[in-house]
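Dear colleagues,

As part of the handover before I leave the project, I'm documenting each prediction I ran so the next person doesn't have to rerun anything. This entry is a single chain, and its sequence is reproduced below.
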Amino acid sequence: QKQLVESGGGLVQPGGSLSVSCEASGFSLDYYAIGWFRQAPGKERVGISCVAIDGESTHYADSVKGRFTISRDDAKNTVYLQMNRLKPEDTAVYYCNAWGPSDYWGRGTQVTVSS
């Protein structure tokens, strides 16, 4: 079965750090660009970061620039999002998306930033 599975979400205090992962199974990420999206309660899903196939080209939304870092490890078929200096407004369900020959979405992982 071809799928993406996010993991690593949880509860963290403001100012803290968290890393979420997105692992592909049933297909190789070698041919896919990867994006991280998030959806806060009552709001639309928005893109926050993406990484190109080469792993060198990255992009960040202004809301996370300088705090979040996206990376990929094609040997592990996994993409990561390192989140630092987290804020309450970062609370959301985080989804990964792989686009290329096909288009895949994970089911999301909850990140809650609260004291």
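Residues 26 and 58 are 25 Å apart (CA to CA). The mean pLDDT is 97.

All the best with the project,
I.
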